């Protein structure tokens, strides 16, 4: 028996997935501690339920997929609109150095993933999905590239299942290894925060978890919401047009969502430079987060459980190597090239967070470290700037280049 869900029924299911995920997270300390997103929890639960209904009761669900791509593109457009290039000045030289270090890891993650996949005789795309796409990109980037790999010329039907599994594993692993890495570095090199940072925190001048928080945050109103929505709509329109015209004319494959991200970044900075409009970052972030949550809810609740099980062993090997690579890279590269001081140790813990999972995981790692050992003002400036949007732009280019090299 087939049940066809129209647009409205599908939308109701997506919201239901998010509410279900929220419910399970509220009941599980493990899910709370490791910041597992609501759509991931709810989507996996629903996917298992759909699998059971199909296998044992013969009930198949057909969902309306018309919302999927617009939601994904809206999320990446919001990332682009958050890319304030002037923010580079806040981090100084350490920001540029950290950005170079992070970029180096992206290449290594893809090389390691593809080589291991080839050595095990499985589709190299599994290695790429277990590389920077999900390790540094997370669920959103993983699901976006999975939709690309399902089509010609790749035709990898299990791409989404692999992406979801790798991203979820990375999210948990990133939270597990960040703290121990910082602890090892602090103890080994006898590190401590600078006296200036300690005094500033003791005097209440800085807060290691929230810097420069405005006393009266700007309210989200109907008028401002429409303005932010208009910017996203413009980024989607121009991005999709450019993507259509660029197909087959460039040496590398650049998916539509990358164009939407780049157009959003250009639009934001042109508006800032000309002083025509100031982007409401918090509002754009809200729109982007809602879009991502709904997109992931759809992507995850429709995964094929059987495909995931059949590819379990290669993924476990690849992901174990990625975690090992991340730990070694954080200790011997990130820490050393960021100054070999206390700030560098905190940066290393943050790098483990978004190098395997996501920026929120990086922030949690650093909060844990700084609450135990003391403040690190620089780390809380640099990591959000790199992890929030610059990493997505660079990662998209690195992935496109990796596809050109290996495929």
From TrEMBL:
Q: Which domain of life is it from?
A: Bacteria
Chain coiled-coil ranges: none
On whether Membrane is a keyword of this UniProt record, the answer is yes
Keyword flag Ribosomal protein? no
> Which keywords accompany this UniProt record?
Amino-acid transport, Cell membrane, Ion transport, Membrane, Sodium, Sodium transport, Symport, Transmembrane, Transmembrane helix, Transport
Per the record, membrane topology reads: Multi-pass membrane protein
Q: Name one Pfam family in it.
A: Glt_symporter
Under the heading InterPro entries, the entry gives: GltS
Transmembrane region(s): 7-25, 40-59, 71-88, 94-117, 124-146, 158-186, 225-246, 252-271, 283-305, 311-332, 344-366, 378-399
According to its UniProt record, where is this protein located? Cell membrane
**For this UniProt entry, what is the primary localization, expressed as one broad class?**
membrane
Q: What does this protein do?
A: Catalyzes the sodium-dependent transport of glutamate.
Give the family from UniProt: Belongs to the glutamate:Na(+) symporter (ESS) (TC 2.A.27) family.
* Descriptive protein name: Sodium/glutamate symporter
Task: Tell me the name of the encoding gene.
Answer: gltS
